[in-house]
C-alpha cells in the first residue's frame, strides 16, 4: 500500500449514502483505496458495486458521507462551493462514457478543446497552443476543424479525452471510456490513453468492464459491495511479467474472499483462523480432516 508524499489519491473508510425512492442506499461501505502519483489504475466490479459513486466522489460531484477522501492534497469532505468549482476545474479531468456529454455539437474539435480553457480565463495564445498539442497527442491533428457529428465514435472519444486534459489536471478520471466502441477501436483508445498518461505524467483511474484494459494499467482493483475486495498487480518473474492477485484487508481487518475460492473450498458460515508462521489459514469450523498444527 502506498504511503507518504507519493500518494495522489487516498480514501480511508469512505462511506457514501444517497437516497433513492425515499430509501437510503449505502453505495460505499468503508472503502479503502490509495493511488500513487503517476499511476494508472483500473476499477472493476459488477453493476451496483459502488464504482460510479466512487468516481463521483473523486470528481467532486458527490460529498463523502463519512470517512476520508483526499486527492492531490484536497480534502473532498471539506470543499465549499468555490473550492469545489476550483477543484473540478484545475485538479481533475473527467472522460464520460458518452463522449457527446463533453462536446458541443456546433463547435469544431479545436474549439471544443478550448472551451474549458475559456472558462478558466486562459489567454488566446495559451488556448491555441494547448489545443494543438492535445489534438496532436490524440492523433487528430488533421481533424481539428471537424465538428463532432463529422467524427467517428472513436474520434469523438479522443476529442473528449483532449477536453478533459485541457486545463492540465493532476488526475484523470475515465468512466467506461471504451463501452460504446468496437474492440479494435477500444484497444487503440486504451493504447493512446496509456501513452498520454505516461507522456503527461498523469495519475489516472479508469472504471471499466473491458477485460482488455488490464494490459494497459499498473493495477486492477475490484470493488464489491461498496468496498475494495481484490487487487491484481504485475510482478517481474525473470523475463516474464505475471499477474498476482491479492485480497485487500481493510482498516477494520475485514477481507472479502473471492467467490471462486469460496465455492472451491466449500467455506461458509463460521470458519477457523489458524496462524501459520507469518500467515493465516482459513479453515472450516469443523476440524475433522484438517491436518494443520497452528503456531502458538
What does this molecule look like?
By secondary structure, the protein is an alpha/beta fold. It folds into three domains: 4-91 and 169-247, P-loop containing nucleotide triphosphate hydrolases (Rossmann fold, 3-Layer(aba) Sandwich), CATH 3.40.50.300; 107-167, no CATH class; 257-296, no CATH class. 27% of the residues lie in helices and 31% in strands. The protein contains seven helices and 13 strands. α3 packs parallel to α5 and α4 packs across α5. The model has no long low-confidence stretch (mean pLDDT 87).
List keywords for this structure.
4-stranded antiparallel beta sheet; 7 helices; alpha/beta; 7-stranded mixed beta sheet; 296 residues; 3 domains
Using the alpha-carbon principal axes, give the shape: globular
Say which CATH homologous superfamily of the largest domain is assigned.
P-loop containing nucleotide triphosphate hydrolases
| Radius of gyration from CA coordinates | 22 Å
Class by SSE composition:
alpha/beta
> What is the second-level CATH architecture of the largest domain?
3-Layer(aba) Sandwich
The average pLDDT is: 87
Number of strands: 13
The CATH topology of the largest domain is Rossmann fold
Strand order of the largest sheet: 6-7-8-3-9-10-11
Number of individual domains:
3
